[in-house]
Amino acid sequence: MATDLLANLNPQQQRAVTTVMGPVLVLAGPGSGKTRVLTHRIAYLISEAGIDPLQILAVTFTNKAAREMRERLVLLLGETIATDLTVGTFHAICARWLRRDIIHLGRERDFVIYDSDDQERLLKRVLRELNLNEKQHPPRAILGAISQAKNELVGPEEFARQTRSYFDEIVARCYARYQSLLRESNALDFDDLLGETVRLFREHPAVLAHYQQRYRFLLVDEYQDTNHVQYLLVRALAERDRNLFVVGDEAQSIYAWRGADIRNILQFERDYPDATVIMLEQNYRSTQAILDAAQALINASPQRKYAKRLWTTNGKGDQVVLYEALNDEDEAQFVVGEILRLIAEGAARPGDCAIMYRTNAQSRLVEEALVQAHLPYQVVGGVRFYERKEVKDVLAYLRLAANPYDSVSLQRVINWPGRGIGDRTVNELIVWARQLGVPLYQALSELAGETADHPFAARPRSALLEFYALIAEFNRLRAVMALGDLIDYILARVEAHAALKREYDAEEADDRWRNVQELRNAALSYANLPVEHQLAAFLEDVALVADVDSLDRNNDVVTCITLHQAKGLEFPYVFLLGIEEGLLPHSRSQTDRDALEEERRLLYVGMTRAQRRLYLCHAAQRALFGRVTSSARSRFLADIPPTLFKLVRRRGYRAVPAPQTPMFSNRAFNQTPPAPRRDSGRSAPLPAPPKAAFFPGQRVYHATFGEGIVVSSRLIEGDEEVTVRFSDRERRLLASFARLESLTDG
DNA sequence: CGGGCTGACATTTTT
DNA sequence: TGTCAGCCCG
To answer: What is the pLDDT of residues A366-405, one digit of tens each?
Structure first.
């Protein structure tokens, strides 16, 4: 057996597989057989080291990775043993544990899980409640800040204590209300799944001890993409036995913008001084020509701790092609023409080719060219199945059946299909529920009682009561009806099909109804569970392990995909598009050194997807938001020696010079705010002002921004938001926070 | 209350 | 260029 498991593994891989005890850090270059190492190690632990599969926990970053790992393990170990292993994403594993133990945190185990769309809806409600404008306070930015706080395990109270800006102050208020609404809704967002688990472990050592005892061998894939909470989680679990095996590659870290903390991998040796560190440098995927170019790119990065020297026995191979296109259309034409040629020569099939780009918007021209050429293709990404509006609407009814306190779902379908409950009535309901201090569903229940003390006119009231009866009915039926029957019943009861036909033209209504039917079909696989568990199991899978739209590699079609999504994949022929300033690096990343380096790694990830031949393309002109703009080739191309390229260009190509002032400079993001200028001595800061202390035209002083003139002022949530024109620009400030001083007499 | 129109606005994405 | 939110009118 041992020979089987270790056969065809190189010495480093063997060492990674057979180092059973203690912390192990594997730095795995692209194409170095990382997944192989993970699966063979698990097999080795069980069949050679005699470890009980129940004691092994393997964490992956995506469901797809988890599924693939499990499939390979079934092949290696057989179905029976593989079933005993715990393989999953951080989120799925935490959700499972919380279902069991969240009661210790004083919460219910039948919580729902809010996805980002749910989060956004909830936050918009918060903004409205706090009388904040969505335009001025973008929900996604606020959610980003909340998510960041949660990743650092900073709760609403602590956050409020640490605010340093107007924006922070706004976030603090939103965060507090957002969190209490989550709780009221018996809901957890994705970040809470991780954060609450860490909290559970911290506050209940006995619970932690239980999981430490249960899982004595931990494996974590894509360790460079873990965030701080995930780091804490892993550290807590591994604390007792220290059998922690992590695999990652700093050079492929491309999710820092989402909270991934590259320090987790860089500091592994500090956290575990006795760690075995193994580098996997032999590449089994690409030609040496491709590796040389990729290496040159990544070696030019100033931020490298574990510099790897990738090598391969695959041979030199074709030179990397650098195509300089006249414009984006020419670029798409070239790529498609090249694919056609490769196919005609018998060198490739459509499925061997992948077209990769930085932004989804770039896929359009490529798709048009592929259609014209009659080449079959698939675009990875776009709106996923369970995120489609019609699917989420039906799901909202199911979630309400499981948990009527889910206020996001309630608000979502309170007027879908239309039943005469307009925005006005919904807002009244929200305000009233808040006055009562109860969830929306309970407010409806109060309304159904004898209370005369409510703000609703007769017609909206009866519409609300009807809706309440509907949800109460679904809630009763949940426990006695099989899932499929329940869905059918709900669809019929709310006349969903008719609603879709009313709202969309025939073709689109058909499409959407088909999606609803597909959801209905998905319920079939839960039919073998006990009736009372079917709904909960279904909702859990939908929230966490839904992956219906995933890439299908069995189709022989060209794959169009973003660079981010391409991680972990490989194709014989890879075309990278738009290697230009503004696109790669993206314009949003050009002001920040770390973001810029992440863009470099993104390109590195793309390049290392190629097995046989790599094409890098950039265009001199590109349509951007409907406007033709010229673009300069990416600065990253200058880091690859020109001798490694085979240059191809269309006649008439003229290079666009790089921008005169580099868009990135060390100084650009290091500006200090203007020093306060004062002409007279100033009095002690004023305490938080009473209502409307500021008025337009008033001269004020701020400690950081100096003197300014009040443009406008309005009251929000017991505070005053003052817009002040300072010397550089207008700023919105909160009176209680900003400590504005009045310089106007009187 | 609901349907249709106009104007601002633009990464990357998993769970 | 395309989407989404807000506004106006029936």
So the answer is: 999 999 999 999 988 777 788 888 999 999 999 999 999 9
* Residue of A169, A191, A222, A707 marked active site: A222
pLDDT at A662: 39
Q: Please tell me the distance from the alpha carbon of residue A19 to that of residue A11, in angstroms, as a whole number.
A: 12
Strand C: list protein residues with Cβ under 7 Å.
A 134-135, 364, 623, 625-626
Averaged over A563-591, what is the pLDDT?
93
Instruction: Tell me the percentage of chain A whose pLDDT exceeds 90.
Output: 66
Closest CA to A705 of A686, A726, A687: A726
Residues A685 and A675: their CA atoms lie apart, in Å, by 18
Which bases on strand C have an atom closer than 7 Å to a protein beta carbon? Answer: 1-2, 5-6
For residue A506, the model assigns a pLDDT of 81
Torsion of Cα atoms, A187 then A191 then A195 then A196, to 10°: 10
Q: What are phi and psi of A374, to 5 degrees?
A: 60, 35
pLDDT over 90 at A340, yes or no: yes
Question: Does residue A654 come out as left (phi exceeding 0), alpha (psi in the -120 to 50 range) or beta?
Answer: beta
The rounded distance, in Å, linking the Cα atoms of A466 and A6 is 66
Of A35, A86, A163, A303, the active-site residue reads A35
The secondary element (H helix, E strand) that includes residue A714 is strand A706-716
Task: Check pLDDT > 50 for residue A665.
Answer: no
Residue nearest to nucleotide C1 (CA to C1'): A626
pLDDT, position A113: 95
Query: CA of A362 vs C1' of C1, distance in Å?
Result: 11
pTM comes to: 0.86
Residue among A233, A210, A191, A225 nearest A62 (CA): A225
Q: Please state whether strand B lies within 7 Å of residue A548 at its CB atom.
A: no
CA of A624: nucleotide with nearest C1': C1
Residue A742, SS3 per DSSP: strand
Q: Nearest nucleotide (C1') to the CA of residue A459? A: B1
Preceding omega of A585 cis (within 30 degrees of 0): yes
- Candidate list A609, A613, A622, A635, residue with the active-site label: A609
Cβ of residue A60 lies below 7 Å from strand B: no
Q: What is the pLDDT of residue A719?
A: 62
Question: Nearest 5°: CA angle at A24, between A609 and A101?
Answer: 95
Question: Which one, of A338, A291, A331, A330, lies nearest residue A314 by Cα?
Answer: A291
Distances (CA, A) of A641 to A248, A584, A647: 28, 18, 12
Closest CA to A269 of A537, A451, A105, A27: A27
Q: Measure the CA–CA gap between A258 and A246, rounded to whole angstroms.
A: 20
B9 closest protein residue (CA to C1'):
A625
Strand B positions closer than 7 A to protein CB: 1-3, 9-15
Is A485 assigned a catalytic role? no
Position A338 scores a pLDDT of: 96
Beta strands, E only, A358-400: 377-379
Query: Out of A252, A559, A562, A723, which one is annotated catalytic?
Result: A252
What does the pLDDT read at residue A163?
87
Grade residue A362 by pLDDT with cuts at 50, 70 and 90: very high
* Cα end-to-end span (Å), chain A: 90
Check residue A264 and give its pLDDT: 92
> Which residue is closest, via its CA, to the C1' of B2?
A422
